[in-house]
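Table S4 entry, F-box domain-containing protein.
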Amino acid sequence: MFANPPGAVQVNEDVLHELLLYAGPKEHAAAALVARLWTRPAQQALYRSIVFHTWHSAPQSSGQRLIEALRNNPHLRALVRQISIHASTAGKDQALDWVDMFPPNSLRNLTYICWPRDAFDTVFLRRDVVRTVLHLTARGPKNVEGLRACFDLPLMETLELDLSELDTEPAKQSQLGRLLPLDASKAPRLKYLYMHVMHVREPIVNLVLSVFAPQLHSLHIHVSPGERVEHISSESVARWAEDFATHVSRGRNLTSVVFSGFFKLQTMLIWEPLSVGPTGELLEWVVSSGSNNHRVQPFLNELARGSVVEHLGCIEGLYTKELFQRLRPTVRVLEFYVEEETYPCEGALLDLLGRVQRDGLSLRRLRFFASEERRDGFWAIEAACKENGVEFEFFPVLPPLHNPPTRPAIVWD
């Protein structure tokens, strides 16, 4: 594969480096033997990313072998750009001290996945080299101590958090601000935030936004499939929605707000007007479940009108056809997660698409996430997009959607 025949054109090192990213370890070794000029690109491709497991099979893993090579060859350590650590309580005796051998500011991306969540170690996030990463992906913080540690990285620009098992029981929710005193000065460079939560109205979302909204450029909230139906007052939901919109409006650079996921609630849906209150003319989505009513207000209608958002992602129930009537002309990207057999807002969306060129709207891309069998149901929308110069994208998904397809891309640099 990497033979260099006599008289062949020399491959630029940058081009070779990109090619080697698509090869495997065996090809990296073969490339290093072809020519001395190929050695460095091959090493860069081999050592740029390390996956390490703390359980018992770790000594035989490729990650462990790479780490041993790095111990014996210090000059290779600066090549490592990303580390993915999969930790478990069964492997606590497997030390992570080897992380300290990397020079500060060398690691750009750290993925820290813990199962069970009790394996999450806040002390690990305080290591000097970890505190200089630019992108942290953490799956595991189960309490406020672990969560606070994730927001204490001074050079971090991107943070992805899986908080689907965060302990925010009702008794503690009212005290969450006191238990979790976040400080924006601890993560002054944070711009891109992704949070996976159990409920749309999680208190932790507004708590984080109350601190970091002014500095954010992108916010992505992914809701677990089959959101639990609970007894909760409509007043508290309205208050949450109002607070969320207020925080987003404070984000002068917050141009991307995405809600992703599928509720998949096996209950009866009832629509009824919302009495005049803090959220104005919004409607309530009432999900009837026995004696309990679970209300999720379509607050994205107001958000689309009263913020600087240019990229908006929407879950069914968080918006109505009013969204398309209130949409700011500066919105460039809209995306929707659809479960219904037919798209209930098709008429309003088609009307919006018809106004793109006439009214000089900025809309340039329309995305739909739905099951493959519903692909043909969007033919009219796709045709209208083509007619009005808007790019149409359809992403087939296999519900339940555990991981959103639009999560922030990992920056390799």
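The chain has a mean pLDDT of 79.
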